[in-house]
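In pairs, describe these two lines:
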Amino acid sequence: MTVDNLTRIKAARPLIFHTGAVKKQEGIPMKDFDNVGILDTAVRSVISVILLALAVEGLFSNTISLILVVVGLLLWATASSGVCLLYRLLGLDTYHKKGHQ
């Protein structure tokens, strides 16, 4: 790949912004889909680590451990991405509260 091809690939990739509701890059409005706030992210991260640790320890049956892993990974994924589909379905948004931006 040449430098020109790499530049085109980088320019074609979608960009994710975490600082505001709508950003513009080169005149194109980009929408921010984050809906998980800072406190939610911290709580989700801590709970996911606890659930995953409990699942790995083997204190519970295989079924319960599998449920703990699934819930822990879902919480980790929403904390990492900043997007919660359940929040979106319920119309909740803790990221774009007043004073956050």
